């Protein structure tokens, strides 16, 4: 399940209430408010979708403008102590996962232009607001930590919006919707300015701290594969779910799930085969069920296909494996 910092979630609720959404609209979400934790991304997206439906357009712009370094934990502190503005973007690329695991960043630095790419598919309406808020926030952070008026030269969003001028006024540059990718593009020289509180030693300490936090998250991320394995085992006999169905169950898009598995050098197909293999060997070893029944219980429609797969996994046919136990 995708998650996000609670400070971002709490500020979205506060903004929605200040703009006219009632406590009746947000009662469930207000009750869920927490401090210093990560909350399901789905909840933030639902708040964004309520705002899009009932409030003035541009909630993502207004949400992004109210977010600052204090909302981002150790990552926010690192932004303050970066030596240059470009380091802010480097840190968000490397440590975005500390704030949310829904999406990722890429940074392409050339001599004249620097491009930040946000990889997050619009798999529901609230993602549009989330992507808008992310770019507005980042430009605001650059201005906050440098004390300069740093603006991009071009902004692109993959989703549609009825009035691009709404964002052009804030970014002070062309803003394109229905683009190929989500990008913030800057003149590279504008990102070479120093930050107000640049501190090489404190920043290095914070980088080490973020690496520790990232490592701890990676350990916790094993929960992801555990959840997938559990789901596959429980559903195997009734039909193996697709990656889209598993993604829906976990609260993320199929693309995000593929990427998160790829980060672990895994594929969805490999997890399916691993679970089929484990279930098949367990049933062959500990039950009296026929090979045909085991084939069905491991998600195969034909015994012949199961036989071929099992021999590929173990080098033995199912009956031969059982005989040699």
Can you tell me the residue ranges where pLDDT is under 50 for at least 5 consecutive residues? none
How many beta strands in the DSSP annotation?
Answer: 7
Query: Main beta sheet: strand number and arrangement?
Result: 5 strands, mixed
Strand and helix order = EHHEHHHHEEHEHEEHHHHHHHH
Oligomer: single chain
What is the topology, as strand order, of the major beta sheet? 3-4-7-5-6
What average pLDDT do the residues reach? Answer: 90
- Count of alpha/pi helices: 16
Beta-sheet strand percentage? 5-15%
Going by helix content, strand content and strand pairing, the class is alpha+beta
Distance between the termini: 40 Å
Rg, Å, rounded: 24 Å
Shape descriptor reads elongated
Helix content: 55-70%
InterPro entries: AraC-type_N, Homeodomain-like_sf, HTH_AraC, Tscrpt_reg_AraC-type_HTH
Coiled coil: 203-234
Domain HTH araC/xylS-type: 226-324
Protein name: AraC family transcriptional regulator
């Amino acid at each position: 399940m995708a998650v996000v910092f609670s400070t971002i979630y709490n500020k979205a609720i506060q903004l929605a209430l200040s703009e006219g959404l009632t406590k009746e609209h947000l009662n469930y979400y207000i009750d869920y408010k927490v401090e210093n934790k990560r909350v399901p991304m789905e909840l933030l997206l639902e708040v964004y979708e309520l705002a899009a439906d009932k409030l003035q357009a541009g909630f993502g712009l207004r949400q992004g403008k109210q977010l600052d370094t204090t909302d981002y934990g150790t990552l926010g502190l690192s932004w303050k102590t970066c030596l240059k503005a470009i380091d802010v973007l480097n840190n968000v690329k490397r440590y975005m996962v500390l704030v949310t695991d829904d999406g990722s960043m890429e940074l392409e630095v050339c001599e004249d232009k620097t491009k930040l790419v946000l990889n997050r598919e619009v798999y529901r309406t609230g993602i549009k607001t989330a992507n808008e808020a992310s770019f507005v926030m980042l430009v605001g952070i650059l201005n906050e930590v440098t004390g300069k008026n740093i603006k991009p030269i071009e902004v692109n969003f993959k989703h549609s919006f009825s009035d691009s001028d709404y964002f052009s006024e804030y970014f002070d540059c062309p803003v394109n919707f229905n683009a190929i990718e989500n990008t913030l593009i800057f003149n590279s020289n504008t990102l070479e300015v120093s930050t107000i509180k640049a501190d090489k030693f404190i920043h290095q300490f914070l980088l080490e701290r973020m690496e520790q936090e990232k490592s701890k998250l990676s350990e916790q991320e094993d929960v992801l594969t555990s959840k997938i394995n559990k789901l596959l085992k429980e559903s195997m006999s009734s039909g193996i779910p697709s990656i889209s169905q598993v993604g829906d169950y976990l609260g993320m898009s199929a693309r995000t799930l593929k990427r998160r598995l790829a980060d672990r050098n895994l594929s969805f197909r490999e997890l399916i085969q691993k679970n089929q293999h484990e279930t098949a060997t367990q049933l062959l070893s500990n039950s009296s069920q026929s090979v045909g029944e085991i084939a069905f219980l491991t998600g195969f429609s034909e015994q012949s296909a199961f036989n071929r797969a099992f021999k590929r996994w173990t080098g033995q046919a199912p009956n031969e494996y059982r005989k040699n136990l």
